[in-house]
Fold these 4 entries.
Entry 1:
Amino acid sequence: PAQGAQTPDAIGFLAYADHPTPLGPLSILPATAATRDALEVAIDGLSAVGQTSIGNALAQAQLFLAAYYDADGSHPDEELIGLVTDGENTVPNSPEQYLEGLDPAFAEPDWGATVLARKARKSAGLRLPRISTIAIGQDAEVGSLQNVSDAAGGTTFFVPGPTGSTTLQAATLDLAEGFFSGVESGSDLQRVTEGRVKGMRPSEMQTFRVEPGATELRALAVSADQPLGRLRLERPNGTIVAPTASEPESVAFRLRQPMPGVWRFVGPDLASTQHDSVLVTAAVRSRESVLTRFG
């Protein structure tokens, strides 16, 4: 998740068990490699303990956004909460209470008088983020997560998780696809290509068409076990675009006013593996309908 952050996004992380716990304040990523690395270390150090406070976590994420944007009136193009869970809510408040009305008896200490419940924020004329959810494994309460996403204009993505029939590599790509799907739904982006390949040989490189009228292009390539740091995008005129954010196993691109025509991923000739090892996806924001081409 930290690797997928694309400048100039503001991004914050919350862990939640008995209570939601910020891993740090909202930060502009990738402001520095040190900031991104610190978040990754914090995420890697998480472990499953205690209960599952999904409703309070949603409210705490809303507090992040409210504290950052409500007071001074400056707003980003879009606000998105992405919720990831492998279980069901076990603590008052529930996800539905975040939508309808939170019980103050179970409020977190730092909420104060901030308007957090979605219904109350709408009545007060405050901004409402889109919410997309990722349910991991059979224990996740998909129905409740779907209700939240439907009410908040997002999507719900189900990831089976690593099992006897699903590899860790496949689960990693599932999770990455879920995050990108959430960003798409929260940003009015239209997907123009998506695929999983066993390598990045020239014959396997994804191509996609950007139609006239597109105002933004976002593309992402992620792998669980392949080095992708040298992957690039090639414009229709043959010029090369460097990634906005790059890590050894992921690259992200974000361009304003992308050139219309056929784009493609280019880079090192990575040998094919026995399993689908690379997820490649791209989406555009456009004032017009988009025709897709999966290459």
Entry 2:
Amino acid sequence: PQNLKQVYYGWQKIDEVIVDYTKPQSSISYDISYNKEEQLILGPNSKIILSANDVYNNNTISGIDKIKYNINDTAENIYTSPIVMIGYNENYYNLKTYSIDKAGNTSDIMSLAYYLDKTPPVTEIKSENDFVYFDNKIWFNETKKLFFNSQDNSGIKKIMYKINDGDYQEYKNPFVLNTGTFIIKYYAIDNVDNIENEKTIELHSPLPDLTPPVTEIVFPDTLYYNQQSERLYINQKSYVKLKAEDIKGGNDGTAVGVDYTEYYIDNFVDWLRYTLDYQIFFNEGKHTIYYRSRD
């Protein structure tokens, strides 16, 4: 500014005049943001705040008349309030802004490049052991920890969950549940405040026994196996027994035990219940024995 002091020319008085040729200074700020690999990410509820000042030697000069901006080189707008991106699609954007003071001076153009993330996180609940899907239910091993895994472009701010009728709590660490039926509800929030829709899963424990019993035939000591014909020979005084055991599978619950064993011989297809240590004898000739067990 250049001050022109009062000068008197007879009856005429010229007041002090301030000449303002200083450009205003524009600035951009924002909230609810996340930086990923030097890329600024904003959310649909993030606020972009434009401001300007017109100062020389710590004194305001003519003052700011207006602030203008455009997004992706579209039509200019006059800034009146913080800018939110609710109505915009997820994409890359570049905002440009400048200000004009009351003396008509224009600031340099400021710009802000950012990516608008409107996609909520995707969260799953998992177990240290795989879940078992059986009988239209999801089963888990109560001795193994459960945990959440959430993915999002902007990173995860927090995961919230509740068990049965309990209150929502923030997920911090893997946890275990006792035996029973549990309804777990959960969702995640990313770093730009996109909120995932609530998910629900019903889990059951203990794990069911999914491995069938193993049954074997026990032969007497007096037998002969012909490798060429692949036939087994016993004498008429010999007998066989059936032995069944219910074993635990790799991802099963506790084996529940053998309920019963049954068998039939040759073409007699009516299954007969086998009692423990029962001795099965055969008439002379070729025979085939069929057997099975149920736990």
Entry 3:
Amino acid sequence: PIIESDENIETELINKPTKFWFFINERKCAGIVDYFHLDEEYGETLSDVAQLFSNYFASKVALPQELLFSVPSQSCSNLDLVTNDNIYAKLCNLDVDESAGPDGFPPILFKNCAVFLTTPLSLLFNSSLATGRMTKKLKHSYLIPIHESGSLNDVRSYKPFTQLNVLAKIMDSLMCDHLLKNFMSLTKQTSKKDYKITNLEAFKHNFQSCLISKGQLDVIQTDISKAFYTGDPQLLLGKLASMGFNEIILNWLKSCLIERTQQVKFSNSISDIVNVTSPVFEGSLCSQLLFMIF
């Protein structure tokens, strides 16, 4: 039926394969799936479907909450995290094939204007760190439903792909670099008596022992994928503080975790804005590191 709807589509496959696959992908989104449902709730219009996905994705993350954690005062010097060289390197390494975020500015714009944007962005990011506040526009994201497994009509068969603003990605990458550097430094300072063996090392030791003795090793795998979204941000901040992380970093992370918003983008429709609070969020390198620490 797809081929019959366009008499020239067979010719296009040979002469213009890009146009052909664009035609096929359009039909996959618009023609094959006539409706979507979330349990007993059905959506037929694009706006209804976008809202169904929004309700489902929002149910997987922590509800908005007030962070009562108080960042302990420390006698520390101002943190000069972001330099012009840092910013310029991040701008030059942007993937120009990625889509624009909610602000509509594509990565290629920032990459081509890297020389002119380096200094202003350095001032902007350092100001954000110094005040311990992250602007709300950088905390907003689009979620794109991607089919994972199961029925194409079931909303629960999809996972979210996050589109962040380019500036948010740059700031996130810079913070991830700094957190990783500090985490490794703090880990090295841990005395040997406080050293804890990891699950991977324990498994490796037991596995090698079983191979030598020709014994049996039973393994139980625990799926903690849902835990990625439902952690307590107050516990995370408390753990980072106890590990000795800088007061400036803690204040900025606290601001980053609260008042986050997201919308589902489905075709040309966008769902209502949803407020979420979570120690981690999709599309963030920093979040993956925080989850490992948590």
Entry 4:
Amino acid sequence: GSMPGNRSPTPLRAASFSYRRLSDPSYPRSAAACYEAHTPGGIHRAAFEPSDPRHPLSRVKDKELPMTKKRTRIDLDQMKQERQAAVWITAYDYWTASFAEQAGMDMILVGDSLGMCIYGYSGTVPVTMEQCIWHCEAVRRGAPNTFVIGDMPFLSYQVSVPEAVRNAGRFHKEAAVDAIKLEGGHRVAPQIRAIADGGMLVMGHIGLTPQSTGQLGGFKAQGRTADAAKALIDDALAVEAAGAFALLVEAVPPEVCRIIRDTLTIPVYSIGAGREADGQLMICSDVLGIFQAFT
């Protein structure tokens, strides 16, 4: 999965929102929700009755949620051709997924970064298939009309090709994901090919691959020398040749990401790899300022 902390060093904050308790005497006691928005123009306050359409949670009921058309592989390919950047985010629970869908995210990744962001592990290695599927189920319920990607955890695909296909199938059968993601280049090409041959969409992931941090010497940027950059490009080509529909590139120099994007025909997405990609992935815990370990 993708590492929390791989984000722009100066994220923009257009506005932040908070809700105040009814016990606050400055608001009518009959109001069901007190709303405060901090914007560049100042602080704006209001109180809304439950029936008011401006109530912060008035649109949460399923029948009132805006219907969005789920992206498909064809849509994502077309976005690359038209240089329209895809915007996506991680989510690990129903509510975050629901808000992501309402915000119009193109995709949601249920990353094994949940091990660090939700369970407090020091890395992603301890995460299990069961945990990933549980969280994928919740995200699918929260975002029924968004393209959802399940992240295959450590040892769910490395042991054997048949086991990789079986576990990828579990994500589809038990959590109704639209695709799965796995880490690696040449070494996982057989798994990518077999899963794709099974009729499932596979996203590759190269660069900083958190499940392999022991081999990489920690959470360090990759592809910083000419030889390392060439190896990454070769891995990217192997992932595409194996049948992946897209590729995530993490923590590599922007120049290397740009070369990979321009070389491959499939969409190439960045997390901490610069702007020169077909779209950007952000970790929700970073966006919300929840994850503090790397800051």
